[in-house]
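Many introductory courses stop at the sequence. We go one step further.
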Amino acid sequence: MTHGMVSAPQPEAAEAGIDILRAGGNVVDAAIGAALVQTVVDPQMCGIAGMGCLHVYLPKRGVHTTLDFHARAPAAARPDMWSDLIEREADDGWGFILQGRVNEIGYQSIAFDTALSRWGTRSLGEMLAPAIDYAEHGFLVRPHVSEFWHGPPKAGRAGNIGIISRHPVTRRIYIRSNGHPCAVGEVLRNQEMAHTYRRIAEHGAEDFYSGDIAGRIALDMAQHAGLLTLDDLETCRAEENSPLWGSFRGYRIATNNPPGGGIQLIEMLNILEHFDLRAMGCNSPEYIRVVSEAMKIATVDKDRKVGDPRFVDVPVAALTSKEYAAACAEQIRRGEKTRVARLNMGGSESKHTTHICVVDHDGNAVTMTHTLGQPSGVVTEGLGFMYNGAMSVFDPRPGHAGSLEPGKARFSALSPTIVFAGDKPFLVLGAPGATYITMGNLQVMLNVMEFGMDAQQAVCAPRFAAVSDTIELSNRILRATERALQAEGYATSRHAQSFEFARVHAIRCVDGKLDGGADPASGGMAVGT
């Protein structure tokens, strides 16, 4: 019998998590220890200067909550500060392209300690140990990491190589003397990150907010005309929120609140509940048409109405109501095509995020998506970690739901979710993948709930996405299916990748048994003990 399971895009992180469970740690300990390893071995996907959402369920302790650590704009930010620099919207709708790429690369949270102190059994110092070991002694550069570094310009954004080569301190960590990044299989060490993590282990997370580390961050920002100040760091804290609930054919769905993407998941599931998806067949032309229309409706609603609840009156009850879903479903039945207002259509996903799932045999569960958003490329001398570049996804046009304002968090599609069958977890999942996160999570949930797939089958099944007027298809969607969609008047775009549209990781719980799935695209694994 499997007593616990971890699923993650990085084998090093999955193994660290399972080692913690074997040593007597709980699911929160395992998730945080694994996540800290992720910050070392996937340093452009996530980091201690990143953001995310942790969803935790501990039934015997009466705990079911989310810990949101969204990145908030510095107090010095202004709604119109970039309004005259707009070139266009990013092709995938994930942010804007500005002159000089000022919002992408340049100087412009540790929530883990909060989670451990509230629900864990180990200290932050203990959970930092595996990450420190990888930083000091090195890790093998995996194909996924190298692929990201060499990624060409996509969706109108700058090529990724600038993220690790443009700034001297960053370049010293990632670029070899021959002018190239570490190759696949080479060992990358980050002694400065190891030193920073040791300091946090010794002095606590407060050192990041108000101690020596904070002072060094603030000084670096001030010297390079950055917006972040010591006051911003001191006010940076994680927020605990009750989950957002929905239902689908008797299953109970718990996910995260805005500005996270859970609201889109609930809306899409409510719409799709009105269709006999099983009779259509997974990935048939009619199935893709119906699900794509639900995706487009949710995308339009997100663009127009969803943002940071501190600044935007988000109509959560209306968007997640069964009545609204029924009206949307009728619109789809009539054959109406929802138009997604986008300055550019389609585009490859931005992969600057990672995920971790942990479940044990007692039904305790953690699912956490964390990210750098758009990695800034900036590393402060002596600290070793990269800052998030979340300013890139704010709308530089004043007066919109996603417009830039001081202290505001941007919308993020991250949506760590737990599906319940009765009062027990049935499916625990989440994904990286920018705007495609909710679309990937949705399809994996449907694969399990509607088509009876196990976790690995569900994450491996071919996927598609509709975040614009174009239906995007992974390369294993049949060409005959694509022709049928085109015959119905749909524009399509085929991607060369077989595994595309988020990198979903999941654990399924059936009759006390656990099975896990890791998306093959990122080279991760699910491992049990």
